[in-house]
Amino acid sequence: MMSLIDLDDDQRWVPTHVNVTVLRARGLRTKGKHGSRYLYTIIQVGKEKYTTGLVEKAELPEWNEECCFELLPGILEAGGGETTPRGAGTCC
């Protein structure tokens, strides 16, 4: 999604959301002595997080999950890195 903003009489389209798709993973390291039987991923945009569902341990685990984060105006502008996006953090 995008919205139109007016900056000093210069109108332009800026993104309002970012959609992320987690397809699969490879080359994962085992955590702990024996590792878990299940795997998941965590996606973070600013302070907002999205956690995928659990999949059984495999050499190439697949999720095929989507999530959507809302971006605050100015987050992509120069110096806008201090603005924390308020993400929806939910599946799209």
TrEMBL record:
Keywords: Endosome. Residues 17-71 form the C2 domain. It comes from the Eukaryota. InterPro entries: C2_dom, C2_domain_sf, FIP_classI. GO terms for biological process: regulated exocytosis. One of its GO terms (cellular component) is mitochondrion. SUPFAM superfamilies: C2 domain (Calcium/lipid-binding domain, CaLB). Pfam families: C2. GO terms for molecular function: small GTPase binding. This is Rab11 family-interacting protein 2. It comes from Dissostichus eleginoides. The lineage of its organism: Eukaryota, Metazoa, Chordata, Craniata, Vertebrata.
